Amino acid sequence: MRRAPALSFLLVTVFLDMLGLGLVVPIMPALLSAVTEDAGAAVRWSGLLGSVYGLLQFVVSPLLGRLSDRYGRRPVLLVSLSCLGVDWLAHAISPGPWTLLLFHALAGACAGTYTVVNAYLADVTAPEARARAYGLVGAAFGLGFVAGPTIGGLLDTVDVRLPFLAAAALSLANVGYGWFVLPESRPGDRTTPLTLRTANPVSAIAVVLRRPVLGRLGYARLCADIARMTHQSTWTFFLTHQFAWGTARVGAVLAAGALAGALFQARAVGPIVRRLGDKRAAVAGGVLGVAALAGTAFATTPWLLHLLQAVGVLASVGGAAAQSWLSRAVRADEQGTVQGALTGIDAAAETVVPVLVGTAFAWSLTHAAPGLVFAAAAVFAAGSTLLLATTPDLRRP
């Protein structure tokens, strides 16, 4: 198998996914305002688009993972990328919000990129090398986050729809690239059952969570997702309120953190996990994450905030290590099924948590306690770390 081209394609895919998101997210308010011709309606439609995308991803991700076990990783990944490109193109040419909603729902239903990428990497990398591979995926994610808003801002000065055309072109070009360079990592197994029960996201997730070791790792993943989404949903608002920073400085802090995280995951995660092992590295990353979140809750000076941000970068070793550990706890013929269920857990958190956290953060501002949500995130991160620390490191569930 041509692993080098395959790994390159997967990293390019993750980078372009995040680059496309970074291109369009800063421009979305302007596009929706132009489409709806009403600022209030634009805000409501923005929230609806995000919720529908997350809901459809939750509903369909377990099925996509199952399909990748049954029919192979390659076709599922290429179809998912094609749907994403069509979604961005629809954003560029859509005459009204209902068209945007339709195609954004389609993109959510086809959002199997990370499910299949994680399963593919488990197929083609030895267990001891997976943490490094997942670290590289995290680095590609971070670099896309840095590059996207910058390029999107430049394109927006030409035309508000141009960033969406650029995102569509990049996604569809990547499909063509993958068609020629991406080999199949694992031939599909047509004996893998495909039933209504296995396609039901609640049933698929419940099956994973009921397994002794895998279930504990899944609950740890859920707690970590809640902590991560709490941080992501309120970070920029917290910086603006607590330190009175403008958008330029907030953007610089976000970009610096993402770039530092990408470099760390690309260069340091593999050696660290090789030395500590998946479990100890995951627990160490969890402890650092708890410290970063808890410290942020009480940060009142910029230097302390930057120090805690550096601790958070070091904590990213935990995510790659935990993902590697999860992949080792799963049989080769069910990697897609389990990764799909885990993506469903991620999607559920990404759909529900921002709404709840936004409400909680607004309440905390009225009570002069803006760091309260970060303290709550630290509690969930601590729960995740405790689950990891008390789970036996077995090769199979």
Automatic annotation (TrEMBL):
The keyword 4Fe-4S does not apply. InterPro entries: MFS, MFS_dom, MFS_trans_sf, Sugar_transporter_CS, Tet-R_TetA/multi-R_MdtG-like. One of its GO terms (cellular component) is plasma membrane. GO terms for molecular function: transmembrane transporter activity. The keyword Transmembrane helix applies. The chain crosses the membrane at residues 44-64, 76-94, 100-121, 133-155, 161-182, 281-301, 371-389. Residues 6-395 form the Major facilitator superfamily (MFS) profile domain. It comes from the Bacteria. Pfam families: MFS_1. It is found in: Cell membrane. It is a multi-pass membrane protein. PROSITE patterns: MFS, SUGAR_TRANSPORT_1. Keywords: Membrane, Transmembrane, Transmembrane helix, Transport. Its main location: membrane. Belongs to the major facilitator superfamily. TCR/Tet family. This is MFS transporter, DHA1 family, tetracycline resistance protein. It comes from Micromonospora matsumotoense.
